[in-house]
Amino acid sequence: MSAAEEIKTYKNIPDVDGLPLLGNTLEMAKDPAALFLRAYRDYGPVYRVNVFGRKQIVIAGREAALFMSTKKGRESLRSREFWEPMREFYGASKMLTREDGEVHQRLRGVMRDGFSREAVRGRYHELAATIDDSISSKWKTGSEAPVVEAFQYMIVQELGEILTGSAPLEYVRDIRVNILYILNVLVTQVRPRFFLGLPEFKKANKRVEELSRDMIIEFKAHAEKGTLPNNLLGDIMRAHIEHPDLVPETDLSLLLTGPYVAGLDTVANTLAAAVYGILRTPGVLERVQKEADALMAKKTITEDDIRELIVIGGCIREAMRMWPIAVAQMRTATQDFEFEGYLIPENEKLYIGTSVSHFMEEYFPDPEVFDPDRYLDENAQHMQPGVYSPFGRGPHTCLGQNLAEVLMGMTIARLFHRLDMTLESEDYILKTKSFPTPGPAMDFKVKIKGERMPADKLIPEA
Ligand code: HEM
């Protein structure tokens, strides 16, 4: 047989064993990361799960994470289908997360500076004051603070003041409800469409519409007066004026409220997981407090100071490893392509299980242990490219990654500097939720025993 006549044979994609009718739905609802890991162990890097009445191919592990950033990966995967119902719902012409190729690159270009860590450079004293303000309303001494919710308020306040100039705190509940329904019904589709007719969603959605309408009016007024601020929203409005093809009127509402959708659950869940890890793991709290106290003793804090937080940085990385907010990325195959000896057919909807390697002994010894020191150079021999992907992989990697890292570093440092906290009980085990964004359950609480340090003010950078 000549080379041209040779027919390529591919491996069969195995179906993951599951329950009759329900397939893997219960496992997926309970702990998607555990399902993807078990299946990877049992079947290898490609398998098919049966979840929520749909059969879907998963490509998983380090191989899949690396594939997403390759030329072939970029050409073979697109995001459109998963975000299309959301785009349609809002009547927008495009969405950052939905687009690929040139339009996607242009949109990222518009938002790159606003979402970067430069947005908060030189403003750490303001950030500390924002965190203190949030502490005084949601983390009161003697109370049991609902950690995820308290962080949701804190991050809206932080993002609002840093990225947009004001924080819409009276809308936090509406933003949360809105995200919950939109992601569950329109993106992950784990809830039926009629949920969007429920009064709770309709009310929240109306309020978020009101918020974005007010934001548009405010920023248009700035544009007319020539006083558009140098922040994310200023950049979006400038792009709307200069490139209406890229940022038309119809897209403003989603773009202006976008930072909250992108940052609220992701940051709140990660910070809550970090708080749990710090309070639950012997010896870690004291080290975090020492590092936080040393940082706050500086009085003027710079970005470098935050990036040098070894213990706190390690705790945040561990939180993102053990409780990743994006267990898998959702994509569609743009063409037939081969992956690890399997043929993935065109138009197939895929989960890319990039977090599977977070839980593998081969890369993270004792993966169930919260160990902030595992990222130190001397301990990181086991780490290899592609094994750690909390911010995703490929063209859609988190645009807010650097900003999120400094915000989270400062927030944990300020919180543990200021407050003396404990878990409800020494042996408390964290419960988790899976949808719309995996993370600690909403009923996770910590006891606020008292204030360790007063809310003294930081001094702005000269
Ligand atoms: C712990 C914090 C965060 C984590 C773990 C995280 C994780 C992620 C992941 C995994 C993706 C990729 C999704 C995909 O490929 O389908 C993503 C995308 C994105 N994130 Fe984050 N994120 C965090 C915080 C933030 C914050 C604070 C912002 C901005 C306020 C932000 C803005 C974005 C944007 C704009 C995208 C879309 C990028 C694109 O489609 O090109 N993220 N994030």
UniProtKB/TrEMBL annotation:
Heme binds at residue 398. CDD domains: cytochrome_P450. SUPFAM superfamilies: Cytochrome P450. One of its GO terms (biological process) is sterol metabolic process. Its cofactor is heme. Pfam families: p450 (PF00067). Its EC number is 5.1.99.4. It is an enzyme of class 5 (isomerase). Keywords: Heme, Iron, Isomerase, Metal-binding, Monooxygenase, Oxidoreductase. InterPro entries: Cyt_P450, Cyt_P450_CS, Cyt_P450_E_grp-I, Cyt_P450_sf. One of its GO terms (molecular function) is oxidoreductase activity, acting on paired donors, with incorporation or reduction of molecular oxygen. PANTHER family: CYTOCHROME P450 26 (PTHR24286), LANOSTEROL 14-ALPHA DEMETHYLASE (PTHR24286:SF24). Belongs to the cytochrome P450 family. This is Alpha-methylacyl-CoA racemase protein. It comes from Candidatus Micropelagius thuwalensis.
